[in-house]
Amino acid sequence: MMEHNYQLFLALLRTAMTGEPFEPVPSAQEWSELFKIAGQQSVMGVCYTAFSHLSKDQMPPMELLVKWMAEAETIRGLNKLLNQESARLTQLFSEQGRKTAILKGQANARLYPDKLSRQVGDIDIWVEGGKKGVVALLMELGLVTELGSTSVDGKPTASYHHVHLRPTKDHIIVEVHFRPSSGNFNPFTNRRLQRWLEQEIGSSCQPVDEGFNVPSVRFALMMQLSHVQRHFLVGGIGLRHVCDYYWLLKNSTEEDRREVASHLSSFGLRYTASALMWVLHEVLHLDEDLMLCPPDSYRGEWMLREIMAGGNFGHHAEREKHGTLRRVMEGRSRHLKLMRFDFWEEFWVEVNFCKAVITSLPTRIRYRTLSLRDIPR
Predict the structure, then answer these.
(1) Which of the residues 1, 85, 180, 215 has the least number of beta carbons within 10 Å of its own beta carbon?
(2) Residues 170-190, buried b or exposed e (16+ Cβ, 10 A)?
């Protein structure tokens, strides 16, 4: 049974997302816990919109309300800033004759009733041209001085699907994607998934009022489902991912959902989709008519437990508080348990882990560490 504060928080989130009445009258201590959970789940701004539905006696203490308001206003300002930067980058690449699309974050934010309430992250922008062409263009424009996004042992390399630009003067992090998604760990399902995503994004980008382009909803449903799967398996996801997917489904057509559903098994996303549908119904009371597939309570309860315990991307999970050795051991134990969630995807997670352990051995010996995250960047 989920503890009381989490149940209270989910009721507040439902009010913010759906307008469902909020009946409890939380105590000052409970409001303090709700504020903490909202921060861990990266839904502070979204939850703040619920206050317009609350009666006077249901509101948080004035000191906390002011603090929450300040957080929400900061989020609104950051959304405006990231929208402006997304529009600027779109124009920059358009002048070079390249198609672009903003992925996830700012593209999702515009689907919310309050378009400035979603807590921001970085900017993900897809640019056509493939890895070689996009990297060459970025270097020509002076947006990167080195090839890469991850510097280990002084040897920067581009990741599988994107390159990081240098942070802007406003400290905005931008990932330029030459592939639309990081995809699956299973190379067989990933090959089919990437082919479909490439075809869909290449033909579906449309301009929006914010000044940038977005891909089709069906693309976003598929791409972000694979994004949820990948992050859930390797670390965790938060309620911000759940809220994003809720608005994608609410803005989808029956044809969109039918098309995505028809590929779930061949793209290796069936188990994650069925778990996420259960979470969406449990947390936000999503209508069954909007679901991609029947919900799976076994996997869904598993996913929700991890969401509430770990927070956004699993950063607040208990295992993250331990030292390197214990963290690594608990991480491997978690992955073994996740074999019951999706055997083949987790099998390939372990294959990739073994490869990384072997290839990173000289670097880890040099820095005398078990974990690459402990290497100074």
Answers:
(1) 1
(2) eebebbbbbbbbbbbbbeebb
